[in-house]
Amino acid sequence: xxxxxxxxxxxxxxxxxxxxxxxxxxxxxxxxxxxxxxxxxxxxxxxxxxxxxxxxxxxxxxxxxxxxxxxxxxxxxxxxxxxxxxxxxxxxxxxxxxxxxxxxxxxxxxxxxxxxxxxxxxxxxxxxxxxxxxxxxx
Length: 138
Fold this sequence. Notes:
The chain crosses the membrane at residues 6-24, 31-56. By secondary structure, the protein is mainly alpha-helical.
């Protein structure tokens, strides 16, 4: 795992702990710690080397989302990746104003993929079946 994946792991573990602690009506600190610790290996395996490469479809999806200003918006016009363009594209529109990524063009791709992975993680936590399972364990 690289430094970006370790940072993503820490953010996901914090999110998971906060979710496990604050979502149920009855707050249980020990249960939240237990769930977080049990899911560390699962998160490590799922994100191991995930930020080290781009899949075929990610090469053009990430390129559009990280530079909306200069993009031809092909994916948007095809009706694909609209959520990615709105979320990651908005974040990178601000980041591009604040930071010069010209020295290392891979950093925005890694950050974009990490944000995309994190949004997927949040979506899984918010999914009703995961939430109902969480409440049944109480």
